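Q: I have four molecules that I believe assemble together. Could you output structure tokens for the complex as a whole instead of separate predictions?
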Amino acid sequence: MDFSQINKSISRYVNFSQEELDIFNSLLEYKKVPKKTIMLREGEMCNFEAFVIKGCVRKYYIDPSGFEVILQFAIEDAWVSDISFSIYEDKPSRIFIETMEDCEFLVFTPETKEELFTKAPRFERAFRILLHRNLASTQNRLFNAISKTALEKYLEFLELYPTLPQRVAQHYIASYLGISAEFLSKTRAKAAKISDFRG
Amino acid sequence: MDFSQINKSISRYVNFSQEELDIFNSLLEYKKVPKKTIMLREGEMCNFEAFVIKGCVRKYYIDPSGFEVILQFAIEDAWVSDISFSIYEDKPSRIFIETMEDCEFLVFTPETKEELFTKAPRFERAFRILLHRNLASTQNRLFNAISKTALEKYLEFLELYPTLPQRVAQHYIASYLGISAEFLSKTRAKAAKISDFRG
DNA sequence: ATTATTTCTTGTCCCAGTTCAATGCACACC
DNA sequence: GGTGTGCATTGAACTGGGACAAGAAATAAT
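A: Yes, here they are, computed for all four components at once.
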């Protein structure tokens, strides 16, 4: 098993020794999941925290009236889990996690993660930082949802996920941006016209 | 100094021994801040994490075009800080934190918080849970911003913060909900009419 | 008490984005 | 090679909420 990808990723904000990385790697479980598999559904407890080696996953809410909102796309080098605090209140998850491509993961369970923190406590810090990044990005999306137009949101999305439009159906991106699939299509037509003018 | 309020609050998700709580309390600094004081402004580094004993604080973004969005109201028993991950990248904050009433706080600095984690590591867990709660609530707000009408958002807000409308100006609530102050006024009129019908 | 300042309400007009079709397109699959 | 089936595009009609303006009401300041 090749751990260089995940080790590089986790070392971005904290410098770990080889011993620490060895412990880290020994607790990870490799998992292959085919396309269109629902890994977590509403009402279940989320018992994994998965690092995406390869593939693409979406995480979403469905509200009582059936309206769906995508909370996160996770592609290579990202983590997916129900990181909401339901874990600590023993409440089941309100979200769904579903693969959109054939995926490969490295996975922690609550138990192996706890073991990691016991054996190599400095990983607490790394995971706290991941959580902070997640929060910062969610805050930014909240801000965008409130203050930006569809076109602005789409252009910012393209900068953040330049490859996703080639990988997933457009209506998922619309759901992520909080606009209808039809209006995203119109917005893209407009954006294309603008970049035509620019050359 | 009376620490019973903060000790009760921090013990909600983790049970601490008296020794741990003593360490916790010894590292906190009491601070009184008058109304309408800006505690953090854009471009500064946030060097505090404050527990609200009494009063009310708002935390907000201002975008380049001058548009303002309130990210959080913090009242009694809540924590305020720039918890975005900018801390770890040494980037200055993009947000403002401002008191809306005369306030009393118990405050950690990055240094005293680090000291707390060293001397009583189980507080890591408590603060991680706070972060999770924060993230869950931000995710929920994102979902609401995308999928709910102004009326629905206002009614949910009333359940979450029943006392705030009596404490802060309406246009701040509008900014939190992501709607204009005028439209909030119209929405409230509509909500009042509905509850009239109900009796 | 009077004035000034901020906040709240209400009305009118307008637009970004929705909803609901209809049509075209690109596949997978027998 | 036809034919479903899901996806993207485009258009027409509609609506939630914004922008602006002008009063009313409440708070603060002198």
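A: One point stands out. DSSP finds nine helices and eight strands in chain B.
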